[in-house]
Every structure is written in structure tokens, then in C-alpha cells.
Amino acid sequence: MRLGILDQSPISTNQNAQAALAASAKLAQAGEKFGYTRYWLAEHHDLPGLACSAPEVMLSYIGANTSTIRIGAGAVLLPYYKPYKVAEVYNMLATLFPDRVDLGIGRAPGGSAEASNALSENFLKQVWAMPENIKELLQFLDAEYPAAHEQAALSAAPVPAVAPVPWLLGTSKKSAALAGSLGLSYTFGHFMSENDGPEIVQQYKLAFKKRKNGESKAEVIVAVSVICAETTEQAEAIALSSLIWSLQRAKGQGEKGVPSIEEAKNYELTEEETEKLTSMKEKMIIGNPQEVKNKLSKVSETYGADEMMIVTITYDIADKIQSYKLIAEELLS
């Protein structure tokens, strides 16, 4: 089984944004050491407790401080940007870090309505235009896609020897069908979806059309929220920080960041929040290494996934790195 890392660069209550971004770089280096295939950074805008608004900036830093692990965005929120500029940025990264760069494409707002309006006056219009915008982006990444007449002599320089690999990220049948029709690899956000994921992934595979060169194939990553520790009890305690923070954010709180384990234990749950917490835990994988291995393997088999991408939010970066280490020892050694 291949494993990847999806990092949201969360800020803990004892950190500032600088420390959170430094922790992200440390995680990427650890992931490379442990044998993870890729490290992706999420894009968020003015969301309290999340430090990364510009993955491309962090990726240049992380790429320079690693040597083999694939790096990429998970995802570039395309409705905010011109496809040509996105192609320039990721071609630049792929030139600096040959055959290591992924370009995940998404359409979520990644922030508040105010942030969306500040970034783009036509966000919803561009969401509807996603299929055409993706095709335009692919024109600048892959010579197989013919350019529009006015773009025929235009290249997204510098043109790397190996192009960034595009992935479409989503949680819906619509995104799955689009990825399949364009012959793109697909990443399903299991950790953030209430939909029937395996059915959606199956629809992607059925809709998949090979590109003209015949080299593309239906490839699936499933992103899952995981907390692993030496014992189940330790994993449960560590996971509580992330769970309580999710409840706080749902109420418009949590702006101070991920609470400590002690702070999370002292949080007074309402009856409704207790039920919600139980539901959230069912969506996560929490346990000791053997339990996590069994559950990850089951999810992978259910989806028919080629790779599992793990998102882990903890208060302490040491707990996070240890979680990824224990999982790697079980599944990658």
C-alpha cells in the first residue's frame, strides 16, 4: 500500500503561524524519511487556526529541504485563479524539483464568504466554469490538450522536463465524473464527506477515459483522518484535541487553535455535541498500530484505492510525527 500525507498546517494554542509552518516542514522531512510517497499542503483563507494560505510558497521551501518525496497542493482552489498563472507557478516548482511535483485541483471556497469575495468577484461563476478552466489549465501542462487559437504560441514558462501531475480532488459524483472524463487521477476526501465514497470512486473508474497517448490510467487516492499511538488509550486522548477543536470551530470558536489534551478534556460537552463527537470519531481511524493497519487496509480495499492519504491533526507535533512513524512501520516496512 502506498501512503501519502495531507497537511492542513494547523496552529495549536501554544503556537503562532510561523511555528505551525515550521512544523509542516518538519513533518514533510519526517514523511520522506518514513517512506511516504507524497506530501500535500491544503489551501485555506482566513480560517482561524490554519496557517497556509499559499501552498506554492511553502512547497518551494519544503522542496528545497527534502529530496525524494513528491510535493503538491491538496488543492489549488482553481476558481480564484487564472489557469495560466497556476500553470506557471507549478511549472516553476516542477523545474526546481524535477519529477516530484503534483498539482491537486479543487473548487471549494477554503474560507469565509468575505474571503472568497476578497479573492475573486466571480467565485460562483468560476465554480460553474470549472470544467473549462481545468481543460485550459491542462493545455499549459500537457501538450496532448490542444490550445485555443489565441494561446497556440503561449507556453507557461519555464517548461519543465517532467510536467506537474494533475489530480482532481472532490467528494461528489460530479467531481468523479469530471475527473474520469478528462482522464485525470482522482482524490476522494473520505475524511470530509458524508457521501457514499466507494460508489463515487466506482463512478469515476467507470467514467474514466484514457488520454490519447494511452499512458494515463484511473488512479485513486483516498484521504482519511487518522490518529495512531502506541496504545488505543493514548490515541483516543491525542485525538480528543482535534475532535474538540472541530466542535469549537463549528460554533465559530476555536480561533486560538488546536487545544491541548488537557484543555480538550476540560471542555464541557453539551448533549448534542456528545452525539456529534461520537459521529465524528466513527469517520476517523483512531487506535494502536495494528488497529490502524487493519482499518486502513479495510478502507483501502472497500474503495479499491491505489494510495491512502493521511491527515492527522494533533496539539503536539511530536505526537503527529509519531503517529505517521507508527503507521509507516506497520504498512511500509
Automatic annotation (TrEMBL):
Gene3D superfamilies in UniProt: Luciferase-like domain
EC top class, as a word: oxidoreductase
GO CC annotation: cytosol
Superkingdom of origin organism: Bacteria
GO molecular function terms attached to this record: oxidoreductase activity, acting on paired donors, with incorporation or reduction of molecular oxygen
Record key words, sorted: Oxidoreductase
Domain Luciferase-like stretches: 1-302
Keyword match Protein biosynthesis: no
EC nos: 1.-.-.-
Family designation: To bacterial alkanal monooxygenase alpha and beta chains.
NCBIfam families the UniProt entry points to: oxido_grp_1 (TIGR03558)
Name listed for the protein in its UniProt record: MsnO8 family LLM class oxidoreductase
Organism: Niallia taxi
Organism lineage string: Bacteria, Bacillati, Bacillota, Bacilli, Bacillales
